[in-house]
Amino acid sequence: MEFIIDIKKKLYDFQLDVKLQSKEDTIGILGASGSGKSMLLRCIAGLVNPDEGQIIINGKTFFDSEKKINLTMRERKVGFLFQNYALFPNMTIEENIAFGLDKLVKTEKKNRVSALMEKYHLGDIGKRYPTQISGGQQQRVALARAVAVEPDMLLLDEPFSALDVHLRNHMMREMSELLKDFQGLTLFVTHNREEAYRLSDYIAVFNTGKVEIYGQKDAIFKWPASLETAKITGCKNIVAATRLAENRLHVPQWNISLTTVMKIEHDNGYLGIRANQVKLVDEPDGQQENCFKVWIADESDGPFRTSLYLKIGARPESIHDFHIQCEISREERNHLKNLSEPFIIYINPEFAFFVDQ
Amino acid sequence: MNFDLSPAWISIKVTLSATVIVFFLGLITAWLMTKYNGRWKGLIDGILTLPLVLPPTVAGFGILLLIGNNGPVGKFLEIFGVNIIFSWYAAVIAAIVVAFPLMYKTTMGAFEQIDPNILSAARTLGASEAKVFWRVAVPVARPGIAAATALTFARCLGEFGATLMVAGSIPGKTETIPIAIYFATQGGEMQVALIWVLIIFAISLTVLVINNYWESRKKNQQRGFGG
To answer: Is A214 helix (H, G, I), strand (E, B) or coil?
Structure first.
């Protein structure tokens, strides 16, 4: 599987300008709402025409503005899972899945539909209409319908956004299971970094119509290569920083210096630390490297985890007067109650990253 | 009282023929116009809708200009010895022209309500445009299409002005129920007029009620309340 996408399209308030080339089978496209990522899928499927450029999937040219090639939707053989599933409301579940199978002889068609119904756990709802089944079932029907025609490529547009949180986690597991069986390229779009991380090994981060970065997910999440990538991947602590040495940074706003594993190549940029990588330690003297004295400015409790808003080096004046956000478990929070302020945080050099301006 | 039933048969013949023609014509035009997004859309839509807002006599006048003995179509047909003016065909043409915008506009409204993703889904599944139309667009828009058809039927049945101008009022040949009502009233035969009024009332109401029942049954079936 190989694809080359290089397209431009003028949108309402920015330009979609995507260059993406890969040989991976499953790619997640992560970006904020309105960053043009759904438009990219629509261009690939042929729902929308790019202004210029080319789209080549597996050696098959879908679109090429110079060679004046523009395949129709049906010629592209692309399975598209719509955000709202777009099931045919006038057809039963069976009829929906069988819709694209007119070319098959009747018995073959019937066999394929029942095999898919079985595999997608739709056993006893074949005679129902789409409005009579649950959201999770609707999603499975939409997926079964899309793979029934054996497409070369699957495009999933925010596949879980219409589901509630409980069902979402369940369907995510099921989806990754089903996608493993799919012999072809899968591109899926999401604004949820968790979904992107769970479903694919390779991620393209999207920002106002452009691919900010494309690569292996762990690398992207560990040391994001740009400020926007750091934000989109959910890094909560980003602060201006300057280079002191190859592995040492100074943060003027926090009045601290710290060591990093990452090599720092530029003089000015930003330090990023994920909230869950800020560790509270029992170390009483706070003299060790990358350890800092902190006071709690504010806290916000979740059911299992707590977010602390901490000020480094001095007592905060208000709840808004904080430097760094830290996420810990409830047990760790309770443990803190036995200690007194200031607490000590430790920033692991491995997880402190630097992005240039 | 000498009661001639022929206007009923003429009305039904004219109305059914016109409704069938308008149904297909309106359906296909509405679909093509829904898909067309060029710069002429507004103008074309305006022209197609015009008979709805103009007096039927204007439509009648226009048809006369075209198919009258001196009109281009009329002259062409004369070559084959066919004269459609003041025949029941002329009444059908009048009904088509006047009822077409109702079918077209209502159906287009129904097509435009369809979630575009549903149509795109059909296309990505390899459906041809004909299949998208007959298997998806028409069934999904069916309640709107049914309403449009019922309105078309009622409009064709009630057509008066344009019909009188192009088909006249020849008893037993082109005299439809609305025209019979008019001339009966003019001639002071109030009882005859009243009978026709009741008949046309019954036909129209029956068609609308059947349409409503059928639609609500279909709807319940897809929502799962029996059926």
So the answer is: strand
